[in-house]
Amino acid sequence: MDQEYLIRKIEKYADEKGVPIMEKDGMKFLTEFIKLNKVKNILEIGSAIGYSAINMALASDDVTVTTIERDKDRYIQAVKNIKELKLDSRITLVLADALSFNTSEKFDLIFIDAAKSQYIKFFEKFKNNLNPKGYIVTDNINFHGLTNQDKSKMSRNLRQLITKLERYITFLNDNPEFKTRFFAVGDGVAISRRKKK
Ligand code: SAH
Ligand code: MG
To answer: pLDDT value at position 46?
Structure first.
């Protein structure tokens, strides 16, 4: 079975089971970015069923991805998908909570796409695993267009989540170490890079 077909199959599965995989144009944007900047090794926080890890690995033959997922069922599905695409030699899946997973490895790109309420924690923890010229990419910055909107009609849970995301955006904008650019692609993507000293 060819790659295209297998990827469409994962998209269909995600759609049916309500797995929040990256939007297509956001995914395309990220894989182009990986090619353009010759990114080689990637750390992903939040694998879900492996969709974005697979797409990033397919950006170029020399890309390797380490990806962390805490949900066992999704992890198992990700293992299966990655095997089917024959990418198990280039994608390492870790079943763990990212906040208790430690590695001394350095990465060219860190992709944050797990619990939106924990974004600042992920950023602070994993910036230590970033190569000096590396990038931290964050997905779902706009959260379906809900950030920076009137929250009075939102449910309490949603309101809390959006407030946390807005706090993350402020954290990025005011960050003394990193410079961030925001892109209105997919569900909103941020790319952060260490400021030059
Ligand atoms: N990157 C994927 C989508 C990830 S959805 C793609 O685009 O294909 C977010 C995932 O993050 C969920 O599967 C959720 O279980 C996982 N997650 C949330 N918080 C986490 C944490 N602290 N550690 C590891 N995984 C986490
Ligand atoms: Mg996402």
So the answer is: 98
